[in-house]
């Protein structure tokens, strides 16, 4: 945060083996990930980390840690930061963002399958810089095509068109 405003966000999907981590380790992994992403800004300066997971506050006081937690604590010792508890109920914006990303990731899972179905339906998928337009289904009526074909074989119409073309020259 700068002057009370958030300046950046970071997120990533869990790796397959991380899905089995307990909640405490996932929260710690998020802190480690954020520090790795912004280490060039944070190294050598004092900063504050806010978490809605209360047990992270007591992480440095715990006596028994697993190997993963020990490794992450060694990494965290290189930084000068404070770890503060911020209740999830009070952090409405972050909660909404995390819920939105969950919905977006589930949509992205079906993307390829939907594109294949669009091709089968001759449904166009158009990507623009700001959005993706779906459902641009082009409906055609054979009536106009039939009229055009019949006009080509109509002798009287062709004679009149020839006169119009000659007058236009």
TrEMBL record:
Domain annotation Reverse transcriptase RNase H-like: ranges: 5-79
GO MF annotations, alphabetized: endonuclease activity; hydrolase activity; RNA-directed DNA polymerase activity
Presence of the UniProt keyword Ligase in the record: no
Pfam families per UniProt: RT_RNaseH
Keywords: Endonuclease, Hydrolase, Nuclease, Nucleotidyltransferase, RNA-directed DNA polymerase, Transferase
Protein name stated in the entry: RNA-directed DNA polymerase (Reverse transcriptase)
Naturally occurring in which organism (per UniProt): Trifolium medium
């Amino acid at each position: 945060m700068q002057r009370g405003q958030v300046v950046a966000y970071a997120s990533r999907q869990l790796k397959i083996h991380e899905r089995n981590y307990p909640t405490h380790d996932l929260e710690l992994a998020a802190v480690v990930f954020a520090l790795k992403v912004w280490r060039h800004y944070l190294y050598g300066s004092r900063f504050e980390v806010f978490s809605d997971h209360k047990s992270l506050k007591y992480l440095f006081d715990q006596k028994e840690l697993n190997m993963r937690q020990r490794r992450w604590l060694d990494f965290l010792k290189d930084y000068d930061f404070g770890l503060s508890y911020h209740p999830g109920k009070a952090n409405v914006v972050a909660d909404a963002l995390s819920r939105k990303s969950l919905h977006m990731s589930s949509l992205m899972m079906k993307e390829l399958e939907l594109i294949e179905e669009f091709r089968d339906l001759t449904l166009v998928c158009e990507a623009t810089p700001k959005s993706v337009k779906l459902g641009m289904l082009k409906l055609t009526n054979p009536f106009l095509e039939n009229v055009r074909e019949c006009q080509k074989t109509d002798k009287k119409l062709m004679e009149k068109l020839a006169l119009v073309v000659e007058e236009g020259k």
